[in-house]
Amino acid sequence: MARTVLVWSDELVGYDFGAGHPMAPARLVLTVELMRELGVLDADDLEVLGAPVAEDADLLRIHTANYVAAVRDAEGDGQARESIGLGTVDNPVFPHVHTASARVAGATLRAARSVWQATGPARALSLAGGLHHAMADRASGFCVYNDVAIAIAWLVEAGARVAYVDLDAHHGDGVERAFFDDDRVLTISVHQHPGTLFPGTGYPQDIGAGTARGGAANVALPAGTSDADWLRAVDAVARPLVRHHAPDVLVTQHGCDSHGNDPLTELEVSVDAQRRAAILMAELADDHAGGRWLATGGGGYDVVGVVPRAWAHLAAVLTGRPIDPATEVPQTWQRRVTKLADLRPPSTMSDGGVGDFTPFTDGYNPDDAVDRAIMATRQAVFPWHGLDAVLD
């Protein structure tokens, strides 16, 4: 069994945009509590490490010096700096904005180091990470520092080839931008069509630049895509491309805002399908990345009903002990949630959704909108890897 690291500190909940903001830190607290009550944290080969604040030198692997200085200044005076995306509705300035954001980056970087420096197969989860929208010189989409890109940049500098798979409903634009012309990094994003959702990027024809053409793959799914079709899309693009790229480390982002109950998106993916996607990522890491897998959280704004269950499933998959979807949610956790939010919590770890799919290579249906989206991506990207868009 691969050694698994969870990077977690209660200080990570300091990444807090304030009351009423969708990125509520309670989602992290509830997730860790659910993991604890389900026994996920009791796994013999799971180690919990603290989350350090990233040094400036690490932030500068991706972000400009002027931007880091401006974020630090915003922490000092609390003033908006809309020219760098801070002080907006999406990214309001909050106390300790630099320190809290740098701690998320430090958490994911520590997870990356634990995976790369292990003597054999290793897995790690940065639960608060996955802030994939932040750009080199501006905050965007609830993201101040791009922890995922920072961690990947460190891995590349250490000598690794990296494959990145982004399962958030929103396009992983910041990570893609950071490595758009770097052939050592493959980026794959499976998201709701950018014509219907922020950030409005991530079309099939966006495939990378220079010697890295074909190094970016974007699957733009129609609103309403549900379990079996979503899983089919993830598998149809990620499996052949990761296999061909032959990475040393697989990095994945597990934003669970693809769920049908998410208030910000329009996909219809259950926690059952998200659990199956995590298992698929584990398979890719074991089969094509030497067992080295770094996973992060990401988006997800149904704070009670979705995020804790989706990420508890993810953590359990990382430990090699997936949770049976029929498992009852512990009564103590349900009672705590009811007192906290006066909401009816889920009673089991399942939505009764679909955890399986028909592989794309079993047959392409040109009348199906999801199959057309898959084919558009495969036709744009696969030839750059010597792969057949229909058969591989």
UniProtKB/TrEMBL annotation:
Q: What keywords were assigned to this record? A: Acetoin catabolism
* Pathway(s) where this gene product acts: Ketone degradation; acetoin degradation
Residue ranges of the Histone deacetylase domain? 21-317
SUPFAM superfamilies, sorted: Arginase/deacetylase
Give yes or no: UniProt keyword Lyase: no
Highest rank taxon of the organism: Bacteria
Recorded hits in Gene3D superfamilies, A to Z, give: Histone deacetylase domain
Q: Where are the transmembrane segments?
A: none
Record-linked PANTHER family: HISTONE DEACETYLASE HDAC1 (PTHR10625:SF10), HISTONE DEACETYLASE HDAC1-RELATED (PTHR10625)
What family classification does the UniProt entry report for this protein?
Answer: Belongs to the histone deacetylase family.
Please identify the protein, giving its name as recorded.
Answer: Acetoin utilization protein AcuC
